[in-house]
Amino acid sequence: MAELTALESLIEMGFPRGRAEKALALTGNQGIEAAMDWLMEHEDDPDVDEPLDTSLGHILGREPTFSESGPVSAAGEGKPILSEEERQEQTKRMLELVAQKQREREEREEREALERERQRRRQGQELSAARQRLQEDEMRRAAEERRREKAEELAARQRVREKIERDKAERAKKYGGSVGSQPSPPAPEPGPVPSSPSQEPPTKREYDQCRIQVRLPDGTSLTQTFRAREQLAAVRLYVELHRGEEPGGDQDPVQLLSGFPRRAFSEADMERPLQELGLVPSAVLIVAKKCPS
Length: 293
Hints:
- By secondary structure, the protein is of the alpha+beta class.
- Helix content is 45%, strand content 10%.
- The chain has 6 helices and 5 strands; from the N terminus they run αααααββαβββ.
- The protein has helices at 6-12, 17-26, 32-41, 66-69, 84-174, 232-242, and strands at residues 209-215, 221-227, 254-258, 263-264, 282-289.
- Strands 2-1-5-3-4 form a 5-stranded mixed β-sheet.
- A hairpin with a 5-residue loop joins strand 1 (209-215) and strand 2.
- It is rod-shaped.
C-alpha cells in the first residue's frame, strides 16, 4: 500500500476535502503540519469553505515536484511503502497534533479573554473615580455658593441697619430732637452710601461663578454652576459624564458650540478659563457629536 499523500492524510483526519486542498495550496504544499496550522487558525473564517482561486497555480493532492522539494534519489525511487499499522500510527500522530493545536488555541483564547476582562474592569474603575471626583467638586461648589449667599445676606442686613440709623439721625436733626444723650453721628461719607445712577457711574461687577446651560442633541438640557476661572474642559467632562448612555454602549466624543454668536470651541479653547471665553456670568452651550479623528 502506497504512502498517503498530504491531502489524503488530512481528509482521513476528518477535514473537509475543500478545506484540506485550500490549506495545502495556501501553505505552498509544505507538509501536513503547516496545513493543519492554517486550518486551525482559519476554521472560523466566513470564507474558509469558498473554493480557492485556480490562478494561484497550486496543484493540489500531490507530492511536491522537483522544483518544490529538491531532486529525488539517483535511482528514481519513491518514498517507502507504509504498512497498514504504520499508516494507522501516522494517522494517530496527526490526530494528536490536531488535539495539541486545539488546546493551544483554547489556552490562548482564554488568556485573551482574561486580559479583556481586566481592561474592562480597569476602565470601569477609572470612570467611577472620575465620577466621584466630579461629585466632590459639585459638593464643594455648592458649599461655596451657600457661604457666598449667606455673606451677601448678612451684608445686605448690615446696610439696611445702617440706613435706618442714618434716617433716625436725619429726622432728629431736622425736627430738633435728639437720639438719646449722645451726639448725632457724623454725616456719612459719600463712598459707602448707595447713590443713584445719576450721581456716580456704575462699576463693572466681577463674577466668580458661572452658570452654564448645556443643550443635548436629544432635546434635553443640563444646568450646572462652575467657577469663572475653571477651564472649558471641565464643562465638557461634566457633559460626557451626565449625558446618559447611548445605544451601542460606546460614547462618542462631543464638541461644544456657543448659541449666539455661533462659535465652535476648539481643543485649544478647552484649556482657557470660562471668563476669558466670555461665558460669565451665564451662557448657553450646544452639544454636537464630534467626528473621531
